[in-house]
């Protein structure tokens, strides 16, 4: 009996922190641990989802289908989820993931672009996958837009809609407002995915639960992009203290985090100056490299550039704007 | 104009993480940075307060009076605070600290023992120090007791009373309840000191502010005992986004954290399995070593020992109980 469904993203969002270099053995070990600890779902894919392995997003060390299969083979109870961003991944990737053992798909779009996911969500349902829509950069749209986009996901067949704080920007009250509005306006279940750039991943996850979310993402040792995610083993401890059932064994999940994940971390998941500014500004961490260059070229503090990019609600793909903003700030 | 007074404890609680090995130059550099960033107060002392340097609590590399003096010499605006735990420190330590340049004293006792602080608080006021009472392990007493103890502090002359979540145990609602009760029942200002063992330091600090606290502790890069404290530079960013004035410059404080503190960290301030269990159980981190020994001796999971010690509200000085608990759990 579970009140809250924890979905662990160590093997997907955590892939960013691992620079997409997970070995098959590492995936097998973590998957076995998650399964033994009783984690209901965990996601396996390139950090940018199925098909993400590329020069642009970073090449994976091992083909993700091999990793999905390795993970699925360790599962007696847990189910493997995959993430698909239409445009990066294609429908065939979903079919291949199912053949490799995936049981759930999360179709992810920018917060204003749910309409590009219709086919993928429908196909995911057709394949028999538990299917979710995943609204990224959810701080960039007002609540009314989030409700409208969630309704699109629902109309395509999504069974869960996630609010995704990709930049770790949201404050707890803003999470409450978004989740509550979804709860009042859509029929499917609601999920929340936090990032810890402002040290609020746990606070925001609790706010989401209180407002009606039932699916919460976490990652072991907080392994994920930026400052990482809600720390799975800590989430289990906090919810256990609150009397909320997750079905996860606390000691077992701590053992996976400490004994399997901690030793392979390339760097600890701290809140550094740059990840803090990402969260404060509300921009993608992929902007950082270009911003550093533009900062040097135009002699402008990179933090001012990032804050201005956030103010302009700049999204991935608009990297050219970074130089334009730097130039305008020099004046 | 400040809505919230931030007190940085990197040079006191952070001393635990540094194993009390701060050099005079490091203290000088951090103090200069804090002063430039506009931090109103920062604390300098052994992790266990004035007089803490000892075989029992760990020997400091440099005499704390030298460190206080070095820090005070860097201050044009910031004020140096010291912590004193009666029994570890004595009244003369306060006088020496004043001579070295301290402007504020926080007199700390276990949550039920404010009555041992009467002389120290009175003497601190006599010395012209801004004076606070600091209730440690605040999760161990119900709110009614905290109010009663705070009233004692107030009656001795304390101008601020702190609720101190030494073990990182409290949930946000529990912080709200405690701070709100103080707000309703005492006249002096209210402070809050968090630890991040349950990933709730920021959430709890915000809950405290919302309930009426005006003094909030933080530390750079979260440097402190257990999983560390509320991360000062992140707190500044979060409060700035909320429109709450702290008087601290965001970019400057990030620079101190990144350029001065991060390079000297002996280890990053993560939430490890053992610090998580400390917070979950609500026990002092000083119990860990004995618990490991007892665990091996009696073949009992050390986490079970810690949870049972927490349930029994065991405090520092009762280390013998650790073996007794381990033995009883073996049965």
Layout of SSEs?
The structure is a homodimer of 331-residue chains.
Chain A: E1 5-11, H1 14-17, H2 24-37, E2 41-44, H3 64-73, E3 79-84, H4 91-100, E4 104-110, H5 118-126, E5 130-136, H6 143-156, E6 160-164, H7 172-185, E7 189-193, H8 201-211, E8 215-218, H9 232-241, H10 250-261, H11 273-281, H12 288-298, H13 302-311, H14 320-330
Helix pairs in contact in A: 2-3, 2-10, 3-4, 5-6, 6-7, 7-8, 9-10, 11-13, 12-14, 13-14
**CATH class term of the largest domain in chain A:** Alpha Beta
Classified in CATH, the superfamily of the largest domain in chain A is Aldolase class I
In total, the number of domains of chain A comes to 2
Q: Judging by the overall fold, what is the CATH architecture of the largest domain in chain A? A: Alpha-Beta Barrel
What is the helix tally of chain A? 14
| Named CATH topology of the largest domain in chain A | TIM Barrel
Task: Indicate the proportion of strand residues of chain A.
Answer: 5-15%
Write the element-wise H/E pattern of chain A from the N-terminal end onward. EHHEHEHEHEHEHEHEHHHHHH
- Cα-atom Rg of chain A, whole angstroms? 19 Å
- The poorly predicted ranges of chain A are none
Strand runs of chain A, count:
8
Instruction: Report mean pLDDT of chain A, rounded to a whole number.
Output: 95
Give the oligomeric state of the chains in this entry, treating copies of one chain as homo and distinct chains as hetero.
homodimer
First CA to last CA of chain A: what distance? 60 Å
The assigned structural class of chain A equals alpha/beta
**Largest protein interface, residues of each chain:** A-B, 40 and 40 residues
GO molecular function (chains A, B): 2-isopropylmalate synthase activity; 4-hydroxy-2-oxovalerate aldolase activity; manganese ion binding
Keywords (chains A, B): Aromatic hydrocarbons catabolism, Lyase, Manganese, Metal-binding
InterPro entries (chains A, B): 2-IPM_HCS-like, 4OH_2_O-val_aldolase, Aldolase_TIM, DmpG_comm, DRE_TIM_HOA, PYR_CT
Site (Transition state stabilizer) (chains A, B): 12
């Amino acid at each position: 009996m579970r009140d809250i469904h924890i979905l662990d993203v160590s093997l997907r969002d955590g892939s960013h922190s691992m620079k997409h270099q997970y070995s098959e053995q590492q995936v097998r070990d973590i998957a076995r641990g998650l399964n033994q600890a009783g984690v209901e779902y965990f996601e396996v894919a390139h950090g940018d989802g199925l098909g993400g392995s590329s020069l642009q997003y970073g090449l994976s060390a091992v083909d993700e289908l091999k990793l999905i299969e390795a993970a699925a083979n360790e599962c007696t109870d847990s189910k493997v989820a995959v993430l698909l961003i239409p445009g990066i991944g294609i429908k065939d990737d979903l079919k291949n993931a199912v053949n490799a053992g995936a049981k759930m798909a999360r179709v992810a779009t920018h917060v204003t672009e749910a309409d590009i996911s219709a086919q993928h969500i429908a196909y995911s349902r057709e394949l028999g996958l538990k299917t979710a829509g995943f609204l990224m950069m959810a701080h960039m749209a007002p609540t009314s837009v989030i409700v409208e986009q969630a309704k699109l996901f629902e109309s395509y067949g999504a069974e869960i809609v996630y609010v995704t704080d990709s930049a770790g920007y949201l404050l707890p009250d803003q999470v409450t407002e978004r989740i509550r509005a979804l709860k009042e306006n859509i029929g499917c279940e609601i999920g929340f995915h936090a990032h810890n750039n402002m040290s609020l991943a746990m606070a925001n996850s609790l706010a989401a639960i209180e407002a009606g979310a039932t699916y919460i993402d976490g990652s072991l040792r907080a392994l994920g992009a930026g400052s990482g995610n809600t720390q799975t083993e800590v989430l289990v401890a906090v919810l256990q203290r609150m009397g909320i059932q997750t079905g996860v064994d606390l000691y077992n999940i701590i053992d996976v985090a400490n004994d399997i994940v901690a030793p392979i971390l390339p760097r600890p998941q701290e809140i550094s100056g740059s990840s803090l500014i990402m969260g404060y500004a509300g921009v993608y961490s992929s902007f950082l490299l270009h911003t550093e260059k533009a900062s040097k070229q135009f002699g402008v503090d990179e933090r001012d550039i990032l804050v201005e990019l956030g103010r302009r609600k700049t999204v991935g793909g608009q990297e050219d704007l970074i130089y334009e903003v730097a130039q305008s700030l020099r004046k």
